[in-house]
Amino acid sequence: MAVVACCALAAPKAGSGSLPEQRAPAGFPRAVRLLTRRDFARVFDDARPFGSALVTVLARPNDLGHARLGMVIGKKKLRRAVDRNLMKRIIRESFRRQQTALPALDLVVIAKPAKRVDRQRLARDLAKQWRRIAGAHDDRRDAADSTRRSA
Question: What pTM did the predictor assign?
Fold first, then answer.
């Protein structure tokens, strides 16, 4: 019976010359989630929408110093539970990978009607949305800084 190395793809060995890659924080801890009705209401009441064919992302600045995410994936938008759950997993993973690049915002992702979820299309769409949101927030901050300096 042959012994098979099961962990050959683990971390590189010491002295192998390769640097560990920069990784986003693992998981989806409570600190980066919108949890209460009040959190969601605050975003729905005063947010800037960023729309696409698959989702609408509402963004509102927060004072926490990091981005937080909430999701609204209704049964009327995606009928099958497996599709709703897949969409949530893709959104969480996309957010997790981009959260260090996002400014301090409360974000709510709202699903649009679809028959099925296309993983690659949704992932590309979300990556584009995160870039738009970060860019729009940077533009706003630059404009606010310039008005402060001129006053």
Answer: 0.74
